[in-house]
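Bumping my old thread because nobody answered last time. Still need a sequence for this structure:
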């Protein structure tokens, strides 16, 4: 029995709107048993910020769950739980039904102490409290999370996802679809964008959710780790378990589960849906459905079962998220951490859902077997799981508060980045690269700067010469440059790339040679760059924009110091481009190269 003496109790709670629609997922709060219900209202409001920011604490109604509701992770108990939630009808708070202790829920009075309601010890497997938020006066600010009428731009995307998930459900399960003979067929008709085969790719997933960038930042950090004795012990146990030999997959999974679970935060479990049961998953209730925070697929040894667990995990991701329905996909790219284990090797990837599923390795297969003679490898493993645990925690918080209060892709153009620069109060992406320009991450946008709205071009690049760009912009030979992440080593990267923002200028590209006056302006631009010791590098007509009488250069990705900087190793050497001799992968950039490319643009009538 719970006495009137103050003890800490843990309550598992679910927020519902006035129509019994779930807002976020299940969460827990710790509170002293001698606190008033009014104090608990304040605690819950603070705990669930920003979800409940629109309400005063005394507007939030708390209902005790009287009939035991298991927060199960199996399919049957989850269905029972969701049925209970969907069946809740809130009576008037002053009615006998609301106060009756024999119903399914009972309203709590703000000025009664908690031990009066919970006299018995609480079972941590049950839901204890329903948090009801009142109707909202302004419908456009409503917080409820339910399937909406999609925007015209989002509707075809959701329809494409629906067709894909239906086709996937009608196909073989991931364990069979990952067999190479079947996978070749799958990728031809229902591809996952994971780089297999070459060209089957999407933009970096770090553009669509910060968790993937944070993971890589923690992994690459040189800051000393706060060594935790428990984590060190778990890493040692994990290395032993990974290195050992096992007769089968079941024995390996049993051996690694405890240390792996401890390092990931203690939430790894098996989840079954139609045709899919991964070796492990981390899940969270979200929007009345299930969000998949992490998915693990494992093979006993490299090459056993004739399946790459990286491929199978991507297929499992699609199958799991196909079951989660439209509600989450409407307001999220469904970020998930993917773990693929083959014997003593681990690959960590990230996955998102755009029109199609995208899976990209964050770190390739690495040896986790450990060594007595390699302390650096131990520290790396410890840092790796520090990054993984942090990523899982971040995604759990993300899905717990997911809803229209977040920046929602459904209100924008689907498959656009989340990134907004600090100097702009707002930035809205308007369009994304066309299908034939997927290798160039260039987006049209608009942003508020210095109190006014202006159209802009946002691009993500591995390198950019901001100084050269500004030299030409000062002479109206390049767009105004507002931001480039390449100028500050501490500036965040997104998917390993830097963000660049410049004015959007309407114009066209000239095919072939230029008119005489156009040529003179391009020559002036090149002369200015050469005067400052720069080589433009990629002087082709796609990088020259004609706007009436104005001629501007628009691509400074390659631009570098003459005699020092190098051409990209991925340069396209198609002979039709006509690169001068000496231009090639990693070759040194020279001013002569610009001059020879400029000659190709000279009009036939121009005096040579």
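Sorry it took so long. Here it is:
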């Amino acid at each position: 029995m719970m006495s009137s003496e103050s003890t800490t109790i843990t309550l598992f709670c679910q927020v519902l709107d006035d129509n019994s629609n779930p807002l976020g997922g299940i969460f827990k709060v710790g509170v002293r048993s001698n606190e008033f219900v009014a104090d608990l209202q304040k605690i819950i409001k603070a705990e669930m910020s920003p979800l409940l920011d629109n309400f005063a604490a005394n507007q939030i109604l708390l209902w005790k769950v009287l009939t035991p509701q298991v927060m199960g992770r199996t399919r049957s108990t989850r269905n029972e739980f969701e049925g209970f939630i969907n069946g809740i009808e809130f009576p008037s708070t002053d009615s006998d039904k609301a106060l009756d202790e024999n119903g399914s829920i009972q309203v709590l009075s703000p000025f009664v102490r908690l031990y009066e309601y919970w006299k018995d010890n609480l079972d941590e497997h049950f839901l204890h409290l329903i948090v009801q938020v009142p109707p909202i006066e302004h419908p456009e600010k409503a917080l409820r999370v339910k399937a909406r009428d999609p925007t015209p731009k989002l509707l075809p995307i959701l329809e494409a996802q629906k067709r894909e998930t239906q086709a996937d459900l009608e196909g073989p399960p991931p364990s069979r679809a990952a067999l190479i003979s079947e996978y070749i067929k799958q990728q031809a008709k229902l591809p996952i964008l994971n780089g297999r085969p070459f060209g089957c790719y999407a933009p970096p997933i770090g553009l669509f959710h910060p968790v993937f960038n944070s993971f890589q930042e923690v992994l690459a950090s040189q800051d000393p780790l706060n060594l935790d004795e428990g984590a060190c012990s778990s890493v040692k146990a994990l290395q032993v378990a990974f290195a050992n030999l096992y007769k089968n997959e079941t024995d390996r999974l049993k051996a690694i589960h405890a240390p792996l679970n401890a390092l990931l935060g203690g939430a790894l479990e098996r989840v079954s849906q139609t045709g899919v049961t991964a070796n492990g998953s981390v899940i969270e209730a979200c929007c009345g459905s299930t969000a998949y925070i992490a998915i693990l697929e494992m093979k006993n040894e490299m090459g056993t079962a004739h399946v790459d667990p990286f491929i199978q995990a991507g297929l499992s991701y699609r199958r799991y998220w196909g079951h989660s329905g439209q509600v989450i996909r409407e307001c999220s790219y469904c970020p998930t951490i993917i773990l693929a284990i083959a014997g003593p090797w681990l690959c960590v990837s990230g996955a998102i859902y755009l029109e199609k599923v995208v899976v990209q390795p964050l770190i390739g297969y690495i040896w986790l077997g450990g060594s007595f003679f390699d302390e650096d490898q131990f520290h790396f493993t410890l840092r790796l799981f520090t990054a993984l645990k942090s990523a899982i925690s971040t995604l759990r918080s993300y899905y717990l508060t997911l809803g229209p209060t977040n920046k929602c892709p459904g209100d924008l153009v689907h498959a656009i980045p989340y990134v907004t620069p600090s100097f702009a109060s707002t930035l809205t992406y308007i369009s994304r690269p066309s299908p034939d320009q997927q290798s160039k991450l260039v987006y049209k946008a608009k942003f508020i700067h210095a109190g006014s709205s202006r159209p802009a071009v946002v691009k993500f690049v591995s390198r950019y010469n901001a100084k050269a760009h500004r030299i030409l912009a000062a002479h109206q030979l390049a767009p105004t440059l507002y931001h480039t992440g390449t100028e500050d080593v501490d500036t965040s990267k997104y998917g390993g790339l830097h963000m660049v923002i410049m004015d959007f200028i309407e114009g066209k590209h000239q095919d072939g040679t230029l008119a005489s006056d156009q040529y003179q302006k391009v020559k002036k631009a090149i002369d200015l760059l050469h005067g400052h010791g720069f080589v433009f590098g990629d002087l082709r007509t796609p990088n020259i924009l004609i706007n009436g009488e104005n001629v501007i250069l628009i691509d400074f990705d390659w631009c570098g110091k003459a005699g020092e900087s190098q051409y990209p190793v991925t340069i396209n050497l198609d002979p039709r481009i006509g690169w001068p001799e000496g231009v090639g992968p990693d070759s040194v950039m020279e001013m002569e190269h610009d001059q020879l490319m400029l000659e190709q643009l000279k009009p036939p009538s121009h005096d040579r």
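The longest helix spans residues 375-400. Let me know if any region looks off to you.
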